[in-house]
Specification:
Largest sheet of chain B: none
Helix content of chain B: over 70%
Mean pLDDT of chain B: 77
Distance between the termini of chain A: 40 Å
Structural class of chain A: alpha+beta
Bound molecules: protoporphyrin IX containing FE
Oligomer: heterodimer
Low-confidence stretches of chain B: 33-77, 326-331
Number of domains of chain A: 3
Shape of chain B: flat
Radius of gyration of chain B: 21 Å
Shape of chain A: elongated
Number of strands of chain B: 0
Largest interface: A-B, 50 and 50 residues
Largest sheet of chain A: 7 strands, antiparallel
Mean pLDDT of chain A: 83
Strand content of chain B: under 5%
């Protein structure tokens, strides 16, 4: 087959048999060319594909920093010897690691090297005509001598027969060329076109991924309901954020969000049924507008989308200090089970100030460790909530007094106490745990009071900008289309040869010609024999039918 | 309704179990006589075949499903084999019907499409496999010989579903409550079912290929009467090639949905990672099959590897890892 192609296409020869010019073998060049050939071979592609699959496995086995940083920390605690080693080789950032990137970059290099020549060849094929058939059609996988050689439209006129056959094949969307006494036809170019489209779409997706990671950014935060807790989109307002290498903090779009209401509905079993958040949003200093969003329908803003990820309760606590000053604040507690048993701390660093200087007293800062149960059990132990909605809310608090360790400059969690301070005795527990119902007031040993005023809802959200997502979507659709053509397309060729009957034949069928057909499937195609036979039958019938009408 | 569904599942498993035993019996009954009858001539036949270079030269291989003349095989034993085969067939059809019943009643009980948790998911995937199997069976009856493998897989998967994954009927969690749920999960279920089904001819191919090259020891001898290796290989490819684009679509639909639900199209959550792994393995399968220098045995092994990664995604991921996809309902 390929020899046929080369004969019809002198251009290929010149390029593929280039070497004659370069007689002096250049070792380095040869090495490079060989490596390139190796890299772009199907075998290498195959090996790289499997390496890619294998390399992805640790990404599912080990916790990943970009998904669950807290689990990575937990892993460090559990495996203090192993974790640093794994960390060095990128075990917690598998999909950004050097080796993972190396594999897919090699794979895509191989891909480019593989499809570039194929595209060139295919482009050529698309513009070229089907090749001359072999001398002997009976050597082909499919072969037939047409049952009734007398059918031709113009009896005995080989040219008319040829053009009749060619017309019939064209109507069936074969690409046809008539050469001498042979009609050559080919079909199924879409297979290769589809395959190339598929692989090119893969490349486009890679480009999309790259653009997305360069120009994309995201930020996560928690948003408590109420005007006091609203936030605006500056980088430091996010508890966690990631900017692509080409994004500056000043590039973030400007908008402010205030959570006005959050509704969660639960089934009697406690399983959540629906979540919906209502917010007031203003963008670029414009007017505030109300908007709702929920788990499956994000808030789409100009330049970023806001996604609802989770929700929880923030107990509102009022502490009145020795000077009679009170402070009220909502402290978001993190839930740790499906019934929203929530844990957290309420810290009051700026209480019990020295009345004369107005300075913090490092011995008199106050904090409470707490467990909030939206539906507390009827009797002790009060450690687990029974239901995620607030049917019987109760807050268990443990008071601490001393130095919260906030001035040390160490980043501290807002969900737990600084354990270092507790261990060193700088922060001490000053009373037993106590269960408070909403509006309960509790007087501590030093006469100060703490009040549980109720809760606010909070939501956790991600703000994300993912450029190139349209590119990704379009290329994945093209990928799919290409894939289908590639998998289900079939390239095949047929030839019809008309041999005019020798005039001296002198038989009764005088003037009729011999029509021979041959077929070659160029890809694995089980049904080719059927198609071929149908085609032969149609040629017989088609030509015969014309005779009838004439 | 839910209770009815549970009961139907028990009968479904029972049905597949009966089919499996009947298949085994059919092998055993035809086995004794047939092995004795064909052992010598078959070996000759095959050594001649193996001597020729082309390993899959069809002429040297007995045509598919052909049992050499059963001259001295007691007629009774083949008769028994045929009866057992028929029982297996009927049991499979019945079991599949019950399977459908279990699924439909489950859907009615939950008032939604019945694949909202792992239990239902496995139930549906296996049903797609079984339905695809029946289609193959009616289209090409000679695949009947693969029934033992198929029913074994069915019993195992459904057994695991019923014993380990079982979850009472509940509505969907909010994240799943989207029309993308229907699109993504329907296509995932469908393609997973077909990809799992492809395991059957792939495994059989390996046995048959061994058998055709003269191996007569335990696993190979099971393929004595299976369709020819060439047919099995084609069948495997057909199923994989049919399912792969659907699976690709399902993964893309999943990404679109994940963008809306979780704010990122792709986040390497364990389930996504394993879908990626499966996808790459099946892409490797298609490549390997298109590469002449890769042996067909290797290609079949890749298909089986793909099957294992799908299983990992169905079961393993929910047990070993937690991610956003852990809506399994099992803890
Ligand atoms: C990024 C990695 C790649 C992926 C995910 C991929 C995926 C696929 C898939 C799914 C197919 C099946 C479609 C079909 O059968 O037509 C395919 C076919 C094909 N791929 Fe790739 N491919 C990749 C890279 C490559 C590379 C590097 C080469 C060249 C060495 C290559 C050459 C081919 C060829 C020639 C076919 C056609 C096989 C046939 O004739 O059926 N691919 N590829």
């Amino acid at each position: 087959m390929s020899s046929v192609e080369q004969r019809t296409d002198p251009g290929t020869r010149a390029t593929s048999d280039g070497p004659p010019r370069v007689r002096r073998p250049n070792r380095l060049l040869a090495l490079l060319r060989n490596s390139w050939r190796q890299l772009t071979s199907m075998r290498t592609a195959l090996i790289l594909l499997f390496l890619l699959a294998v390399a992805a496995i640790p990404g599912s086995v080990l916790p990943q920093r970009n998904i669950s940083p807290e689990k990575v920390n937990a892993y460090f605690d559990q495996h203090p010897d192993l974790a640093p080693v794994l960390d060095r080789i990128g075990g917690f950032d598998v999909f950004a690691s050097i080796w993972f990137s190396a594999i897919y970059l090699l794979l895509f290099t191989s891909l480019v090297g593989c499809i570039a020549p194929r595209m060139r060849d295919h482009f050529r094929t698309l513009r070229s005509v089907p090749p001359v058939g072999p001398k002997r059609l009976d050597r082909l996988p499919q072969h037939a001598v047409l049952a009734d050689p007398e059918v031709a439209g113009a009896r005995g006129d080989a040219d008319a027969e040829l053009s009749a056959i060619a017309a019939l094949l064209r109507k069936r969307r074969w690409r046809v060329v008539v050469r001498g006494n042979t009609v050559a036809a080919e079909k199924g170019y879409l297979k290769e076109s589809g395959n190339l489209l598929f692989h090119i779409s893969l490349l486009a997706m890679l480009v999309g991924v790259a653009l997305g990671s360069w120009y994309g950014w995201h930020g996560n935060r928690l948003l408590v309901a109420g005007k006091d807790s609203s936030f605006c989109s500056t980088l430091d307002q996010f508890s966690e954020s990631g900017l692509g290498p080409r994004v500056q903090a000043t590039d973030l779009p400007r908008f402010c969000l205030e959570l006005t209401n959050f509704k969660a509905q639960f089934l009697p079993s406690g399983q959540p049924e629906s979540f919906s958040a209502s917010v007031l949003v203003d963008q670029d200093g414009g007017a505030q507008r109300a908007a709702d969003f929920s788990v499956n329908s994000p808030l789409r803003l100009d330049g970023a989308n806001v996604y609802l990820l989770g929700h929880g309760y923030a107990p509102v606590i009022r502490y009145t200090d020795r000077n009679g000053k009170s402070q009220t604040q909502a402290f978001p507690f993190l839930s740790n089970d499906g019934n929203l048993t929530s844990e957290g701390v309420a810290t009051f660093p700026d209480v019990n100030l020295d009345p004369s200087t107005g300075q913090r007293d490092p011995k008199a800062q106050v904090a409470f460790e707490g467990i909030y149960l939206p539906t507390a059990p009827d009797e002790a132990p009060f450690v687990r909530s029974q239901f995620p909605a607030e049917r019987n809310p109760a807050l268990m608090l443990i008071p601490y007094r001393g130095n919260l360790g906030m001035d040390a400059g160490m980043p501290s969690s807002v969900y737990s106490l600084n354990q270092e301070q507790v261990r060193e005795g700088k922060l001490t527990q000053v009373g037993e745990a106590k269960l408070l119902r909403p509006n309960d007031r509790w007087t501590l040993d030093d006469g100060t009071t703490v009040e549980f005023l109720g809760t606010q809802q909070y939501i956790t959200l991600t703000v994300r900008y993912a450029p190139a997502s349209t590119l990704m979507l379009v290329s994945s659709v093209l990928l799919l289309i290409g894939l289908m053509f590639s998998l289900f397309g079939r390239r095949r060729r047929v030839w019809f040869r008309v041999t005019p009957a020798a005039p001296e034949d002198g038989s009764t069928t005088g003037g009729s010609s011999l029509i021979e057909a041959g077929g070659l499937p160029r890809t694995d195609y089980a049904g080719f024999a059927d198609e071929f036979n149908q085609l032969v039958a149609a040629v017989e019938r088609g030509a015969g039918g014309r005779e009838g009408t004439e | 309704m839910a209770a009815l569904s549970d009961q139907l599942l028990v009968f479904t498993i029972l049905g597949y179990l009966i089919a499996m035993i009947s298949h085994a019996a059919s092998y055993a009954f035809s086995g004794k006589g047939a092995v004795a009858a064909i052992s010598r001539p078959a070996r000759q036949l095959v050594t001649v075949g193996a001597g020729e270079s082309g390993s899959d030269a069809p002429a040297a291989v007995p045509p598919s499903g052909s049992v050499p003349p059963t001259g001295d095989v007691p007629a009774r034993s083949t008769g028994r084999a045929a009866i057992a085969a028929r029982i297996a067939m009927v049991a499979t059809v019945l079991a599949t019907a019950l399977h459908l019943g279990a699924l439909v009643t489950r859907g009615v009980a939950a008032d939604r499409l019945p694949w909202g948790n792992m239990y239902e998911f496995v139930l549906t995937v296996t049903f797609v496999g079984a339905a695809g199997w029946l289609y193959l069976l009616f289209r090409w009856p000679s695949v009947r010989q693969l029934g033992l493998v198929l029913t074994l897989v069915m019993v195992l998967l459904l057994g695991i579903a019923g014993l380990v994954l079982y979850t009472p009927v509940v509505p969907l969690v909010p994240a799943l409550n989207s029309y993308w749920f229907e699109i993504h999960v329907t296509t995932i279920v469908f393609s997973s079912g077909i990809l799992l089904l492809a395991f059957v001819p792939a495994a059989m191919y390996l046995m048959r290929a061994g058998y055709e090259s003269g191996k007569r020891s335990f696993p190979y001898v099971l393929a004595r009467r299976s369709p020819s290796a060439v047919t099995l290989e084609r069948l495997t490819f057909g199923l994989n090639a049919f399912a792969f684009p659907i699976f690709t679509f399902a993964v893309i639909a999943g990404a679109v949905w994940a963008e809306a639900a979780w704010g990122r199209a792709w986040g390497w959550d364990p389930k996504e990672t394993w879908a990626f792994i499966s996808w790459v393995v099946y892409a490797g399968y298609l490549h390997a099959r298109a590469t002449p220098s890769v042996k067909r045995n290797v290609v079949a092994w890749i298909s089986i590897l793909g099957f294992l990664t799908m299983l990992m995604n169905l079961f393993g991921v929910n047990f070993f890892f937690t991610g956003l996809h852990s809506y399994a309902g099992v803890n």
